[in-house]
Amino acid sequence: MTTQLTEADDLRHHIETLLAELRQRSEPRGRLALKCSDGSYAFLEVEEICWVDALRNYVRVNLGDREYVVRQPIREFEARLDHRFVRIHRSTIVNATKVRAVERRKHGDYVVVLDSGERLNVSRGCRSGLDEILAFGGLAALSPAS
User: 55 has which bridge partners?
Assistant: First the structure.
């Protein structure tokens, strides 16, 4: 009987830990500390980030008026971001709050247009990222026929 209670307590603790991690990831983050490639540190508000792109083992964090290069793989950097950030390409993550438009091009390709006017291509493998952007903007997802 004691073993069953211990296993149940362990399971309950594990579930509570997972739920806390999920809540933390879904809550908007405040500030990020970035160790830049030149050895300096930059502190920036997460909502300032427009988009992030991969440069091998580095990422370039674009804030519209300035950018930082950080030595960190994009998948690790992505884990530091919250639900506002969407992967639209193997090497590109975009802040959904900065998206002004999603344009359809020939052959079913899409381009995300940011508030700054920057145009970022959406890869076919990351098309689900468009659904997240549309849902973030309160629109229905793309139909499978699109």
Answer: 58
Q: Name the region of 134 (left: φ>0; alpha: ψ -120 to 50; beta: rest).
A: alpha
Q: Is residue 71 part of a domain?
A: yes
Domain contains 116? yes
Structure tokens at 39: 């050895």
Find the angle CA(105)-CA(146)-CA(74) to the nearest 5 degrees: 70
Q: How far is CA 78 from CA 46, 74, 88, 92, 97, in A?
A: 12, 6, 12, 10, 16
The answer as to whether 88 is a domain residue is yes
Residue span of the structural domain in which 124 resides: 31-136
Q: What sections of 45-127 are H helices per DSSP?
A: 74-79
* pLDDT tens digit sequence for 82-102: 888 999 999 999 999 999 999
Q: pTM for the whole thing? A: 0.73
Number of domains in the chain: 1
On the question of pLDDT at 136 being above 50, the answer is: yes
CATH number at residue 81: 2.40.50.1020
Q: Which of 41, 37, 40, 42 is nearest to 56 (CA)?
A: 37
Q: Is the distance from CB of 63 to CB of 114 less than 8 angstroms?
A: no
Assigned domain for 54 exists: yes
